[in-house]
Amino acid sequence: MPIKMPAGKRLAVCLSPDFDAQSVWIGTFRSTSQTDLSRGEFGAAVGTPRLLELLGRYGITTTWCIPTHTMQTFPKAVEAVITAGHEVAAHGVYHEYVPKLEPAEERRLIELQLAQHQRLLGTTPRGYRSPSLDVTDITLELLAEYGFEWDSSLMGRDFEPYHPRAVAAIDLEKGNTFGEPSPLLEFPVSWYLDDFPELELHKASPAMQSAEVVLARWIDTFNYARTHCPNALLTWTLHPQTIGRAHHMPMLERFLEHVAQHDDVWFPTLSQAFDAWVD
To answer: How many degrees, rounded to 5, is the angle at CA 238 between CA 59 and CA 207?
Structure first.
């Protein structure tokens, strides 16, 4: 079923930053290098203000997925995000790599991040995005059990929210079997619409893509959805320490200029999109 768009709107664009700061280097890359940690600090001290200023200039509010490690390490930067009117969603505790977690530890960390959201922000997150966009066989069940309404970690669609089905059994000769649809609404993501793997230069991923190539792909994706997919919802994953670099901000601004020239585009938070979903 479609999203019920506001009057005059044809498609939704969700720019959803992952404010990982230092946690992505510690939790995913297992690095305590002072150089890597300084890159996370750049995301908080420089990238976040730049991104907030640009979003404010275009009047866009969106959903920031923030590990609770970032909330505790850079509280003033997170406060600036909230003051600017943006939603905060769950994004792990320390950007833990979820597929490597034992079931008991995955449950513990979900409970911990919910408690920390309540203690640090005074709110309970409505949605979740898995660090590194990867989950276990039980992640969706746990999220539903703990009251989450939506997830944004999977890639089973490109422009259409859906209720995801975990693969319950893999059979190489007879085909796979799906479980029941999750009660969670999935806002699909894509590595193609994520700045970090394309633009963040690191020894673990030494090939950095041209900003012009990335911009062309983002514009082509938007144009295709607007032309061919009524009621489409597109989710971009941005990282302040990546997109906030001086050579990347003009690319994002040119993209927003292209999108914002169309009067039929809606810029909701992910929870606003959830509220507009007709199930």
So the answer is: 145
3-state secondary structure 138-194: CHHHHHHHCCCCEECCCCCCCCCCECCCCEEECCCCCCCEECCCCCCEECCCCHHHE
The domain in which residue 101 lies consists of: 12-275
- Residue 6 in any domain: the answer is no
pLDDT truncated to tens, each residue of the chain (279 aa)?
589 999 999 999 999 999 999 999 999 999 999 999 999 999 999 999 999 999 999 999 999 999 999 999 999 999 999 999 999 999 999 999 999 999 999 999 999 999 999 999 999 999 999 999 999 999 999 999 999 999 999 999 999 999 999 999 999 999 999 999 999 999 999 999 999 999 998 877 777 889 999 999 999 999 999 999 999 999 999 999 999 999 999 999 999 999 999 999 999 999 999 999 998
Of 29, 57, 51, give the one whose Cα is nearest residue 245.
51
The CATH number of the domain holding residue 136 is 3.20.20.370
- CA 94, CA 27: separation in Å to the nearest integer? 6
- Total domains present in the chain: 1
